[in-house]
Structure formats: C-alpha cells, structure tokens
Design a protein that fits this description.
By secondary structure, the chain is α/β, with parallel strands linked by helices. The protein has 13 helices and twelve strands. The strands form three sheets. Strands 3-2-1-4-10-6-11 form a seven-stranded mixed beta sheet, sandwiched between helices. It binds uridine-5'-diphosphate-glucuronic acid and manganese (II) ion (MN).
C-alpha cells in the first residue's frame, strides 16, 4: 500500500514537473489556448437559441415590459390629476381635453378590441380614456394593457345591475357609461368634450379633432348601423332637421351611441343628465336629459356627408377550451399563452 501511494505521489508530484522544459511550456500554452477558446465560445454563444422555450418566453416578456416602460416614460403622465387632465408632450396648453368613455366586458375579444381602440386613441392629443368594465373584479389583462398603452386613462368598474342582467334585451354598457359620467362630473374641472366610444367600433382619428370644438352637442354619421347601412342626422342648409336611421320608433334623437359628442360644460349645466337603463333608447333619453333641441345640434363630418365612425362589431368567439392531453406543453411558452385566454369566467 505504501509503495502504491509513493508511486502515485512520484507520478503526479515529481515526474510531471520533471518533464523537459519545452514540453512543460507546450502544455501550459495548450491549456491557456483551450481556456481562451472556451471563453470566446461562451461570450459569443447566442444564449437565446440554446435556452429552453420557457426562458425565451420569460426573456421576451421582460423585453416587452422594458419597451412598455420606455413608452410609459415618454407619455409622461398616465392618470389624470385632480383637475381631470394629464400633462406631458401629448397635452399641449390650451387644447380642450376629450373624455372618451369606453364600456367593456370580459370575453374572448376584449383585449383585441381594447388594443384596436386604444391604438387609435394614441393618435389623439389631450385625451382621457375612461375605460369602464362591467365586472365586480377587474380583469388583470385589461389593467395590464392600460398600463402599457401610453395613454392617459381612468379605469373604473361598473357591473350591470342584476335585474337588468336577467332581461332578454339588456341595456348594455349603461352602468359603465353612467360611472364614466359620474367621474367626469367630479373631476373634469377644465371643461372639454364627452364621447361614448364602444369598444366594438372603428374610428377615423379625424373625428376626434372635429368633436373637440363641440359647444353643446355635435352629431355625425355612423356606418354599418341597421339594415340601412348608416345612421345619420338629416342635414339641410347646415342644420339638422331629422334623422336617418333604421329604427326611428318615436325616438326624438334617432342616433347611434357613436354618433354624437357632448360638451363637458353642457353636461355639467344639466345636473340630472344621465343614461337610463332602457335598451334601445339610451341615446335619445340621454340627449333629452340634456334639454337640447335640433337647433343646438352641430353637424360634423363635413355637414354629415362623410362616414368617420363605423359600428364594425367583431365575430363572437367561444371561450378557449382546456388544452388537449396529446400535446406536451410542460415547460413551454404555451403556459404563458393560456394565461391570456378567456375561459368563460367573469
Ligand atoms: C348598442 C348600445 O351601445 C347599447 O347601449 C344599446 O343597449 C344597444 O345598442 C341597443 O340599442 O340595444 P350594441 O352594439 O348592441 O349596443 O351592444 P354591444 O356592442 O355588445 O355593447 C355596447 C357596449 O357595452 C360595448 O362597448 C360593450 O363592450 C359594452 N357591454 C356589452 C358591457 O359593458 N356589458 C355587456 O354585458 C355587454
Ligand atoms: Mn356594439
């Protein structure tokens, strides 16, 4: 045993250093070169290519968040101050603020709809986007989207009262719009313009600049409404004399929700102005509560000759089904995707 140990000691500790000097140098050099090669390889490896999909997803999410943060910093202020406006480069002095009330509710299309609407609104200066969700508990994805949107926004919750939830024809978005109006009554200290922008419409950004001058109530055509294809005030000599709409039914103002804007000043001067829970009569009843008549209506969109808003609507998708067993998704990007899908729960 002793002999064996002595031999090993001799081989490792004594014989090695006794190699010829040239060979020793070569060994050191070879070692150094190998180390250098390894180091270079490590530095130049495209780490993303060799990471697991889960880590790629994580990394992309972080990158997205960083981009959103930069956008956020760029937009300056995200939530209106006590006077109901934001500040920063999107808020030039002296420009009247627009208060855009958007009712929304959880469904498969909710985030796509808000993305489309929100990105249209990004083209508009001095705008407060009041997003009101028909829920008891906020949808996380909505909050996340708003936070990263770069818009000056207000998020509110307003669930449709239970007795209306049971109706066959529901007064959709009414609780939401009234909550938005209450916020405006309390906060819109510098005046401005109110517009009800449902999340299922398409907006030409020019309409936002046109409504900015609204003195009392302005009106304009909305495309893709009823079988007539358009809903619009009837304008003669620059004055509104009547309404062209597929559903007149005794309505004093037969207009679509997206077809009018109201000045904050006019709204504040009508303390009782609100939207009733009467399906199909929300628009006319709200306008009637403002005590206006046809002479007060300011026709926009080139005397209502152009369509700048459409009730596009979106194909209704079923909630996402649970993932099938035969596809292996463990430790993959699919987990992040599944979290973003609507599963039918409110
Ligand atoms: C339109 C009007 O916006 C409704 O106020 C009105 O009740 C309806 O016409 C009518 O005249 O009967 P519509 O296009 O039919 O509504 O309905 P949606 O687009 O589904 O809903 C209007 C808005 O309310 C949307 O922004 C939607 O996101 C929201 N909504 C809808 C809710 O907040 N909760 C709901 O349960 C359904
Ligand atoms: Mn709609």
């Amino acid at each position: 045993q002793n002999y064996k140990n002595a031999k090993r000691f001799y081989l490792i500790e004594i014989q090695m250093p006794r190699l010829p000097r040239r060979r020793q140098m070569m060994m050191v050099l070879c070692g150094a070169a190998t180390l250098l090669l390894l180091l270079t390889a490590l530095v130049h490896t495209d780490t993303q290519r060799y990471y697991s999909p889960l880590r790629i997803a994580d990394k992309l999410a972080t990158q997205r968040e960083q981009i959103a943060e930069v956008a956020a910093a760029d937009a300056d202020t995200f939530e209106p101050g006590s006077d109901g406006v934001c500040s920063g480069r999107r808020w030039p002095r002296g420009v009247r603020p627009l208060y855009i009330i958007t009712p929304t509710y959880p469904r498969a299309e909710q985030i796509p709809e808000l993305t489309r609407t929100g990105q249209t609104l990004l083209h508009v200066d001095a705008l407060v986007w009041i997003v009101v969700e028909d829920v008891n508990k906020a949808t996380k994805a909505v909050l996340h989207y708003l936070k990263s949107s770069g818009l000056c926004y207000v998020y509110l919750k307003a669930r449709m009262p239970v007795k209306y939830q049971k109706l066959k024809t529901k007064p959709r978005g009414v609780a939401n719009r009234n909550a938005g109006l209450t916020w405006i009554r309390k906060h819109a200290k510098r005046g401005g313009v109110i517009y009800f922008a449902d999340d299922d419409n398409t907006y030409d950004r020019r309409i936002f600049e046109q409504i900015r001058g609204t003195k009392k109530v302005s009106m304009f055509p909305v495309g893709l409404v009823t079988k007539l294809g358009v809903s619009s005030p009837v304008v003669r000599d620059g004055k509104v004399t009547d309404f062209y709409d597929g559903w007149i039914s005794n309505r004093k103002f037969a207009v679509d929700m997206a077809g009018f804007a109201v000045s904050v000043e006019k709204f504040l001067n009508s303390p009782k102005a609100a939207m009733p829970y009467i399906a199909g009569r929300e628009e006319t009843k709200f306008l009637e509560s403002l005590n206006i008549s046809n002479i007060d209506i300011e026709p926009l969109a080139n005397n209502c000759q152009e369509i700048l808003v459409w009730h596009t609507r979106t194909f209704k998708n079923a909630p996402a089904r649970p993932s099938p067993k035969e596809i292996n998704i463990t430790d993959s990007n699919i987990q992040s995707l599944l979290k973003q899908l609507w599963n039918g729960k409110r």
